[in-house]
Specification:
Helix content: 55-70%
Order of helices and strands: HHHHHHHHHHHHHHHHHHHH
Number of strands: 0
Structural class: mainly alpha
Shape: globular
Number of domains: 2
Radius of gyration: 22 Å
Oligomer: single chain
């Protein structure tokens, strides 16, 4: 077996996690946050449920992505990896039959959970007891990374609950107005109608929307396979995106049409589109201010970016998934099209902050950061109700701005990636 490559240190994302946990606990102890991260974790594993089977399922569900991580990482024989996956699926099947679950074959998440749990146990065993030092190294990196992924999810969920509980007025009316003016119709309304609530398309889009963590863990598997093919570590990118999102959502609070308009979405938005925008309250219940810009779409694009130096099949798969996420965010009422447009320059700026090798003073890096910051600043002004109402009178200018901001972002992104390749990016060695 060849020696594993030199993996990136996980010290930076670990430090970022500690900072995020400290912030979450500080908000909880001070009063603004209704829950603490450990309470969110207990809720995810359904700890308060008197049925122990619910706790088992909740705990197993945390490790679904380990299946993809281990399957993609080529440091153990294919037969062994497929055998572990088959054992986990068989375990999940036997479990569902044993408890008498009707239509158990429809519960695909259980198969992922069973396979992931078995593979996690295998990796922990390899980390501590493997004779081969290389496999110990790989297993330790994968286990620590997976734990950071799970912790990131818990912190993110804690923040979303905090954001919803604060009930800060939102700028959704402005976003709706800008959408309708720039594109001549409401893209979010059109997308919702393209996927009827009880239709199969909507179910597929809902599944795609929820699979984003698995897509990111697949990228982590690619990093374990050959870290030099990624311009930076996926965990570094996730945490930078997380902090950027928390900052952006406090400056431009937008919840999404399904949370802001409730029963009027998507059928009765015409009157709002013709009215004068103002600050809004969201509908009762869970309604986090996490729509502008769309980091759900940004994370899908981040996965595509990090997979850009992989084989064509991987690039096509991640590009198709990003397109599905774009459609899903609109069809499910989570976002407006302007949210997705604004996420492109913001993500390019984040890539410029995270990318390795190019000098910090390079024009390509500075240009990408400034492009993203400038685009977000313009959007933050446009979302102000009075400005949005005035800007809506110039639909051609709004459409031109949307196109220009994306085009400029892609231009500086291309220059940035060329600079990365010039200094040794996209190494081609892949382990057998």
């Amino acid at each position: 077996m060849p020696s594993p490559p030199a993996y990136r240190s996980l010290a930076v994302p670990s430090a970022a996690l500690l900072f995020a946990l400290a912030a979450c606990y500080g908000l909880w102890l001070a009063g603004p946050a209704p829950v603490a991260p450990h309470q969110v974790l207990l809720a995810l594993i359904e700890f308060d449920d008197p049925d122990p089977l619910s706790r088992i399922e909740g705990f197993a569900g945390l490790w679904q992505g380990v299946l993809l991580v281990l399957l993609i990482s080529p440091w153990w024989p294919w037969r062994l990896r497929l055998g572990l996956a088959a054992a986990g699926i068989a375990l999940a099947t036997a479990y569902q039959v044993a408890i008498g679950r009707p239509y158990w074959w429809l519960h695909l998440y259980a198969f992922l959970s069973g396979a992931g749990l078995v593979m996690l146990v295998f990796l922990v065993h390899q980390w501590f007891f493997a004779v081969d030092a290389s496999r110990k190294t790989v297993a330790g990196f994968l286990v620590r990374g997976v734990l950071l992924f799970v912790a990131f999810g818990v912190v993110t969920k804690t923040y979303l609950i905090f954001s919803s509980a604060q009930a800060v007025p939102v700028l959704d009316w402005s976003a709706l107005k800008l959408d309708a003016a720039a594109f001549g119709f409401s893209p979010s309304e059109w997308a919702a109608r393209s996927a009827p609530e009880r239709g199969g398309i909507r179910r597929v889009l809902a599944i795609a929307y929820e699979l984003l963590p698995l897509a990111m863990m697949a990228v982590f598997g690619l990093e374990a396979r050959n870290p030099d093919r990624l311009s930076f570590g996926v965990l570094n990118g996730l945490f930078v995106c997380g902090f950027a999102a928390a900052l952006a959502y406090s400056i431009t609070p937008v919840a999404g049409p399904v949370y802001a308009f409730g029963a009027t979405y998507p059928g009765h938005l015409g009157q709002l589109q013709g009215g004068t925008p103002g600050w809004l309250a969201t509908q009762p219940g869970f309604a986090p201010r996490n729509a502008f810009p769309s980091f759900h779409f940004a994370w899908a694009l981040l996965a595509l970016h990090l997979a850009s130096a992989q084989a064509s099949g991987a690039r096509i798969a991640f590009a198709a998934y990003a397109a599905a996420i774009a459609w899903a965010t609109l069809a499910l009422g989570e976002h407006y099209l302007v949210d997705l447009v604004a996420s492109v320059p913001v993500l390019v700026a984040i890539v410029a902050l995270c990318i390795e090798r190019p000098d910090w003073r390079s024009r390509e890096r500075i240009g990408a950061v400034l492009c993203g910051l400038a685009a977000y600043f313009v959007w933050s002004i446009l979302l102000l109700p009075s400005v949005a109402n005035a800007a809506a009178r110039f639909p051609a200018a709004l459409l031109a701005w949307c196109c220009a901001s994306v085009a400029a972002s892609l231009y500086v992104y291309r220059r940035l990636m060329l600079a990365w390749k010039r200094v040794g990016g996209a190494a081609t060695s892949v382990p057998p």
